[in-house]
Design a protein that fits this description.
This protein is an alpha/beta fold. The chain has two domains: 223 residues, no CATH class; 310 residues, 3-Layer(aba) Sandwich (Alkaline Phosphatase, subunit A). It is 48% helix and 10% strand. It contains 19 helices and eleven strands. The longest helix has 35 residues. 43% of the residues are buried. The N terminus and C terminus are likely disordered.
Length: 575
């Protein structure tokens, strides 16, 4: 006899559980008994779901529920020995706590599906605003507001419903003490035996489960380590190999060059190796390599491991520019309120005009001052008059054309170092522009008719991977075309992915690696990185070296002639 069957039989009790009152007609009594049985069944299923549900997206299968949760056995055993008043005081808080565990499981599943990691209760509340804005621009303001209201309602309702469910079930357990005690003894013995022997009814799913308690413990421990991370990060940030390098000894191998550093949204290793994308994306890269070589350009490519996946592009940007591992919002805020020496500041102190082009930024961006930009271009001052392409406020071609028109075409100027965010490959891939003649880009009106607006419908599940691939192809073709049209001997292009796309696109268990490429016409530039072991061309080889993204700043500065400070050692920046 199982716990469920004991509860089901108990739900048919005549007066106290069915709720029948003296004088009730038989039909009404039967209706009350059915309602009571249904409520008990739903409470039991809700509690079992809460206890056995996984906390990872790829484990969300029916087999995960073929388990014996030890938390249920211990709770029932406890209420059997408690007096009635104490039982209520114990059952209700335990139920509410289980509701909180369910909320954390849902958050973990959501974060795992998008960002390939569990939810962090200390750092990750800051993702709520970007999440709202993403839904707003992708689906529409009503949907974003409705989803927010639903989330708030569930956060309140789930602990309450779970507390009521546990109270109901513990009352039944106490009322049928003997049968329940025997059931708990049998299942408890089975749990111990199955745990000792590693019994699995479903492959990979132990029958003896304690997943809810494990999750609660893991998140509690995570809170402690997250709070301590500030001290750990402060020690890492305090050591900087280049902070005190004189400007005359900085980036001597790039003097007179315009350096364009472009982050390509969601351009991960999967784009060049996953069988659904690689044939077409690799063809674009190989064709681009041939075209650039014919025009006198060379290229070298490798891999970097991003500090984030699925989203959080700003974490990757700050990791590469600061030389520190920025994988959470607390580190990002600590970094951007510090005096850390960034790659952009290195160029600025050495005589370059530094700027950034961020078409997805639509409001004030106070962190810009930390990076040391002389100029910030964003959605508010880029002058774009064309249609919006879902999340992307403008096509990547317009972003690059604005850089060329407003900065790189100016006569008698200092060399420019520009950091760009290319966002045409941002989810939801619902609207992808086409390349046009660079001479016709103008204010972007030429793109009229291509975009579907900011609330364009997501591609269907059968099309979304193909649309992602097309967006990557578009941006890569745009970069190649830009260099062929405007690149000179004094142009150096560095482009890389910010992070892998979500697992639904990249595939489960994908790495966090992103391609990185340096393109230049001056062979002396690529000679500087000949010892890196990178692959010739725009496509990195499977065997190309993989470095943490946080090491790029120091490697780049060293390769191009910067001299480390005598008083500092390189920072221990990776994890």
């Amino acid at each position: 006899m199982s716990v469920f069957h004991a509860f089901r039989s108990a739900s048919a009790d005549r007066e106290d559980e069915a709720g029948r009152e003296p004088g009730d007609p038989p039909a009404r009594g039967r209706l009350r008994r059915v309602a009571a049985w249904t409520a008990t069944t739903l409470a039991c299923l809700l509690v079992l779901f809460a206890l056995d549900a996984p906390d990872r997206f790829d484990r969300l299968t029916p087999g995960q529920f073929v388990r014996i949760p030890v938390e249920a056995l211990l709770t029932v055993a406890l209420v059997l020995v408690l007096p009635e008043r104490a039982r209520r005081w114990v059952a209700a808080p335990l139920g509410a706590l289980l509701g909180v565990v369910v909320i954390f499981k849902v958050m973990d599943i959501g974060f795992d599906a998008v960002l390939v990691r569990p939810f962090n209760p200390v750092f990750d509340w800051s993702f709520l605003r970007p999440g709202f804005e993403f839904v707003d621009t992708s689906v529409g303001r009503p949907a974003a507001i409705g989803l927010t209201a639903l989330i708030v309602l569930l956060v309140i309702a789930v602990p309450v419903l779970m507390a009521l469910s546990v109270l109901r079930l513990t009352r039944l357990a106490a009322r049928h003490r003997t049968a329940t005690g025997r059931t708990v003894a049998v299942l408890g013995t089975a749990w111990v035996a199955c745990g000792a022997l590693g019994v699995q009814v479903v492959p990979g799913v132990p029958l003896a489960s304690g997943s809810a308690a494990e999750l609660a413990y893991d998140h509690a421990r995570q809170v402690g380590s997250s709070l301590n991370d500030r001290k750990v990060f402060a020690k890492q940030a305090a050591v900087d190999a280049f902070q005190h390098t004189p400007p005359s000894q900085m980036l001597t191998g790039l003097r007179g060059k315009d350096v364009v550093l472009a982050f390509v949204e969601s351009y991960g290793r999967s784009a060049v190796e996953h069988p659904e994308y690689a044939p077409q994306v690799d063809a674009v890269l190989d064709a681009g390599s041939r075209r650039l070589k014919a025009a006198g350009f060379g290229a070298r490519s490798g891999y970097l491991t991003s500090s984030t996946a699925g989203g959080g592009s700003w974490l990757a940007h700050s990791t590469l520019l600061s030389g520190l591992w920025i994988d959470n919002q607390q580190r990002y805020r600590t970094l951007t309120s510090s005096s850390r020496f960034t790659l952009t500041r290195a160029f600025g102190e050495a005589g370059w005009r530094t700027l950034t082009v961020q078409p997805a930024i639509t409001r004030s961006w106070p962190e810009a001052s930390f990076y040391g930009y002389n100029k910030v271009y964003d959605d508010r001052n880029l002058g774009y008059k064309g249609p919006r392409f879902s999340y992307a406020t403008m096509p990547d071609q317009y972003t690059l054309n604005t850089l060329q028109r407003d900065e790189l075409s100016a006569p008698k100027r200092a060399p420019v170092m520009a950091e760009l965010a290319l966002v045409s490959s941002h989810a939801p891939w619902a609207s992808i522009p086409s390349l046009v003649d660079w001479r016709t880009v103008g204010d972007g009106s030429v793109f009229a008719g291509m975009g579907k607006g900011e609330n364009a419908a997501w591609p269907s599940s059968g099309r979304i991977r193909g649309e992602y691939r097309k967006s990557i192809e578009y941006t890569l073709n745009t970069l190649v075309s830009y260099m062929l049209t405007y690149g000179t001997k004094n142009t150096v292009l560095v482009f890389l992915g910010d992070h892998q796309p979500a697992p639904t696109i990249a595939g489960q268990h994908a790495s966090r690696d992103v391609p990185v490429t340096i393109v230049a016409r001056d062979p002396a530039v690529l000679d500087r990185i000949s010892g890196w072991g990178w692959q010739d061309g725009l496509r990195p080889a499977r065997t190309s070296p993989v470095w943490p993204m946080s090491t790029f700043r120091d490697r780049f500065l060293t390769a191009f002639g910067s001299t480390p400070s005598a008083s500092s050692a390189p920072a221990a920046s990776h994890r």
